[in-house]
Amino acid sequence: MNPRGQYVLVTPAKNEEALIGETIKSVVGQTVRPAEWMIVSDGSTDRTDEIVRAATVVEPWIRLLPLPPRAQRSFAAVVHATEAGVRALAVRGYEYIGLLDSDVRFQPDYFKKVIDCFERSPRLGLAGGVVIDVGLPKDRLPRNRQDVPGAVQFFRRACFEGLGGLLAIPEGGWDALTCARARMVGFETRLLTDLVVDHLK
Predict the structure, then answer these.
(1) I need a surface site. Which of 31, 118, 135, 175 has the fewest CB within 10 A?
(2) CA–CA dist 2, 143 (Å, integer)
(3) Dihedral sign, CA of 13, 55, 197, 134?
(4) Among candidates 59, 67, 82, 76, which has minimal Cα distance to 11?
(5) Which residue intervals of the chain are DSSP H helices?
(6) Residue 33 DSSP code
(7) Sign of the C-alpha dihedral, residues 94, 98, 103, 105?
(8) In this predicted structure, what is the pLDDT of residue 75?
């Protein structure tokens, strides 16, 4: 990939040994791979770290950032883990950054198609596919075509940095607020309804 379209990914994970392997397969199988993928293990006590470490040996652009266990759980922990991953990125010249859950699966050209949408729309700041739980009909599309689920939020770097950070809300809902804030700082947000992502859990 040329430097202009370079992207990085950050994934928070906690005790995802059953599913993170599927997500790793999806990213490794992309026709356009990320320059770096930071997986943040948020105090995992199962085999999550072991699975990710094995992947880093084969694919050195995958990195593991293990965090100590937290005293209590809340939705805000996802944001804290994500921001720790962003700070730990070694690649600096990327144009896009994606936030990716650790229990999703998608087509091999998913990120290529997402980036193509950004290249066609200079004001697009945040986009991502439709996340549908496995077993539900693939045509169950939400009416709101501007909000992108946190599981697959993909940003133009200028938009992400323009937010000044994510909002860590204990009750959840940070992803919807992120979309609203992206529009407030002058960018378009778009749900890409032709791209379906399987939510495995």
Answers:
(1) 135
(2) 35
(3) negative
(4) 82
(5) 20-28, 48-58, 76-88, 110-120, 157-162, 174-184
(6) -
(7) negative
(8) 75
Residues 77-133 have pLDDT tens digits of 999 999 999 999 999 999 999 999 999 999 999 999 999 999 999 999 999 999 999
Considering only CA atoms, which of 187, 166, 186 is closest in space to residue 178? Answer: 166
Residue with token string 């199962």 = 46
Tokens 């066609």 sit on residue: 120
In 8-167, alpha helices (H): 20-28, 48-58, 76-88, 110-120, 157-162
Residue corresponding to tokens 């770290």 = 49
Whether pTM > 0.90 for this model: the answer is yes
Strand partners, 25: none
Whether 34 contacts 115, CB under 8 Å: no
Spans of the chain, pLDDT less than 70: 1-4, 71-73, 138-140, 143
